[in-house]
Amino acid sequence: MEQEIQKEAIPASVDAASDNLVLNHLVPGTEVKVFAPATVANVVCGFDILGFAVNEPGDEVVMRVTAQPGITISKITGDNGRLPLDPAKNTVSVSVLHYLQSIGRTDLGMDIELHKKMPIGSGLGSSSASTVAGLFAAKTLLGDERDMAKLLPFAIKGEEMACGHGHADNVAPALLGGFVLIRSYEPLDVIRLPHPSGLHCAVVFPDVDVPTREARQIIRNKIAMKDAVTQWGNIAGLVSGLYTQDIDLIGRSMQDVLVEPVRSILIPDFYTMRQLAMEAGAVSFGISGSGPSVFAFTRDEATARLITQKLQQHLAGIKIDSQAYVSTINDAGPRVL
Ligand code: HSE
Predict the structure, then answer these.
(1) Cα(first)–Cα(last) distance of the chain, in Å?
(2) Of 125, 129, 191, 330, which is the most exposed, with the fewest CB atoms less than 10 Å away?
(3) 290 and 212 in contact (C-beta within 8 Å)?
């Protein structure tokens, strides 16, 4: 963005006027390139309410101001042709359009290049990384200095479109960075949680397809009070462990009696992988989001690397390709590249 940037006030008729929004005057050709991170949703016991961002993988978006009003998608790479270029069908452009509507600027023209740098349908918040990258690029171009949380409703709309349900446990940490609790959806109440700084995360993606939409359909709608009590105890224990930096408490709280028993059947050798990870020194192990990726928390990087090695070796032995990532918790969220 080399042009001299002039600011312009948003007309008082627009909702965002209550935020005293002053935006950049956009010159065609101005562009920005951003990265948004993958995320681990649920964090085992917190179905739809807990998630954290990782350093890698993630997606990149290049957004360019065009002279013609409207949103276009000129290029998508790394998706093997799986994502629609039609801006009415792509979650990135649809979310950006909702955002522009909210600030009364549908007169603007923006072109999107989406570079997928992570597997689709992996349980690592692939659609949310793209959506958040798009929203963050638009916010950056416009010089909208309001809190990132302002973008959350538009990102949730993107999730709704991607999998039929507007859960926020991927988009909220992708947007805000760090470890995030969605205390309530109606009204939306999102809280950033602290975490022990040394906590590392080993993620392994076994290359089998588990679409979130389907992984949600197999979950039971009713649960027994006894199971709910166990789950509440674990969620409270995990949050408490995050605040007190008690890694043992974090580990023993990460048990899921509601969703994992059902979803684990979609993941090849899930329980063998858990055993391998725990024997190699994991603090905890579970499904990342709706799977098939799995993750383990560890106290250090070397243990995380050992775990990814063991799990990938095991998967190779049963003829399943995989990808692995080792990361700390990414507190920064999206960034300009
Ligand atoms: N909470 C969501 C689910 C996350 O488990 O379906 C999807 O990545």
Answers:
(1) 12
(2) 191
(3) yes
159 assigned to active site: yes
Give the pLDDT confidence of 306-320 residue by residue, as tens digits.
Answer: 999 999 999 999 999
Place of tokens 């093997």: 80
* Best probe residue, ligand 1, of 47, 185, 256 (max atoms within 8 Å of C-beta): 47
The per-residue pLDDT for range 140-190, each reduced to its tens digit, is 999 999 999 999 999 999 999 988 889 999 999 999 999 999 999 999 999
Contact 134, 92 (CB under 8 A): yes
Residues with CB under 6 A from ligand 1: 41-42, 47-48, 123, 125, 167, 169-170, 212, 215-216, 289-290
Q: Where are the alpha helices (DSSP H) in the chain?
A: 91-102, 126-142, 152-163, 171-176, 212-217, 225-244, 247-253, 260-263, 270-279, 301-317
Quickly tell me which residue has 């963050």 as its tokens: 136
The identity of residue 105, as a single letter, is: R
* Contact present, 331 and 250 (Cβ < 8 Å): no
What is the layout of strands, in order, in the sheet containing 200-206? 284-287, 294-298, 200-206, 322-328
Dihedral-angle region of residue 78 (phi above 0 means left; psi in -120 to 50 means alpha; beta otherwise): left
- How many whole angstroms separate alpha carbon 190 and alpha carbon 211? 26
Q: What are the structural domains, with CATH classification, of the chain?
A: 9-194 (3.30.230.10), 200-328 (3.30.70.890)
Helix 152-163, helix 91-102: angle, nearest 10: 150
Residue 71 CA to ligand 1 center (angstroms) comes to 28
